[in-house]
Specification:
Aspartate Aminotransferase, domain 1, globular, single chain, five-stranded mixed beta sheet, alpha/beta, 13 helices, 2 domains, 364 residues, seven-stranded mixed beta sheet, binds pyridoxal-5'-phosphate, Aspartate Aminotransferase, domain 2
């Protein structure tokens, strides 16, 4: 378990320092400086681990880094959706789960699946309508928050919703994938658990699938850890290593992607091919709605050289896609909405490529 909560030397460090220094072997002669990749499915008997599903030193390094950044005890999972599933699985039969109607569509699909099987009762809400969210918390077992949401980039008022949900007797989970702990720490605001698709910004290089759950609640941590072993949705060791290496530069990448996104959002607002820019003012994701509809949006994603037409987000490279090309995306997301994951390239190069493609789309 990460000692980020109890060790004052760690608790006082800033995120950019923690990202670099947490989860390393002890500073002793001949210890490796970097986190070792320990590929094994079994351990010599008689210790705490015994078998690969129970733990791994490389996962522990990942969990220490992310745990220290979020300010809690972290568990890695095989993917972000495996972490989402681990949390939803804790809600008892027939439990009510309040969730944003525009949450990540994979999380919504899990809720729909659980509802179809009679396991859970989801209530989807407009996450920006704080009073409605608070009203929905009544009788809820879990309030699932995502802020900003994917891909509508709506912002939940975490400071009001979390205490209100607790007062109503509900637990609160926050998917912090978009903001990352560099920009937002939901556990500090009272959330019971934070969930990540570490596949995105934490890894940052679009080369590994990984998920995580982080909590300050020791009992919740114990239960999640036992259930992870039981279910087997454990992290891949190479993936944990890759994401740990990726997290060393998390603060720099997030800062640069955010600076690029702020500049691009400003310029996009003035382009005639764009009818709406959704950008919450922070983070590296922008969603735009194209003036001339879904066909223009599809055209745009095929007209660039630097921007890559691809799903997912949070990598060093700039990618974008029309979200409604997925049948599973909510019909209330505009058909012509393009979600842009702004990378860390030079912002002028990004704008030259994008604005040329937008000019072409406007002429078409
Ligand atoms: N949460 C959010 C906000 C996401 O965007 C995603 C994936 O896009 C997930 C969870 C699921 O993560 P993964 O793809 O690692 O399973």
């Amino acid at each position: 378990m990460s000692d980020a909560l109890t060790d004052p030397q760690i608790a006082d460090l800033s995120p950019s320092t923690l990202a670099v220094s947490a989860g390393r072997p002890p500073h002793e002669p001949d210890q490796p400086l970097s986190t070792p990749l320990v590929m094994t499915s079994v351990y010599v008997a008689g210790g705490d681990l015994e078998y690969g599903r129970m733990g791994n030193p490389t996962w522990s390094a990942f969990e220490e880094v992310l745990g220290s950044l979020e300010g809690g005890h972290c568990l890695g999972y095989s993917s972000g959706l495996a972490a989402v599933s681990a949390i939803l699985d804790l809600v008892g039969p027939g439990g009510k789960v309040v969730a944003p109607r525009h949450a990540y569509n994979g999380s919504l699909s899990q809720l729909k699946d659980a509802e179809a099987r009679g396991r859970l009762v989801p209530e989807l809400v407009d996450i920006e309508d704080t009073d409605a969210v608070i009203a929905a918390c009544d009788d809820a077992a879990l309030v699932w928050l995502e802020s900003p949401t994917n891909p509508a980039l709506e912002i939940a008022d975490l400071e009001r919703i979390i205490p209100a949900a607790h007062e109503a007797g509900a637990h609160v989970a926050v998917d912090n994938t978009f903001a990352t702990p560099i920009l937002q720490r939901p556990l500090d605001l009272g959330a019971d658990v934070v969930v990540h698709s570490a596949t995105k910004y934490l890894g940052g290089h679009s080369d590994a699938l990984l998920g995580a759950a982080v909590t300050r609640d020791e009992e919740l941590y114990r239960v999640l850890r036992l259930r992870r072993e039981l279910i087997g949705a454990v992290p891949g060791t190479l993936e944990a290593w890759l994401v740990t290496r990726g997290m060393r530069t998390l603060a720099l990448r997030v800062e640069r992607a955010q600076a690029n996104a702020q500049e691009l959002a400003r310029r996009l607002a003035d382009h005639p091919a764009v009818s709406k820019v959704r950008y919450p003012g922070f983070g590296g994701i922008i969603s735009i709605v194209l003036t001339h509809g879904a066909l223009a949006a599809d055209l745009l994603t095929h007209k660039t050289h630097l921007w890559i037409h691809a799903t997912s987000l949070g990598g060093v490279e700039s990618t974008f896609e029309r979200r409604r090309r997925w049948a599973s995306e909510s019909a209330t997301i505009p058909d012509a909405l393009v979600r842009m994951s702004v990378g860390i390239e030079d912002v002028e190069d990004l704008w030259t490529d994008l604005s040329r493609a937008l000019d072409d789309v406007a002429r078409a």
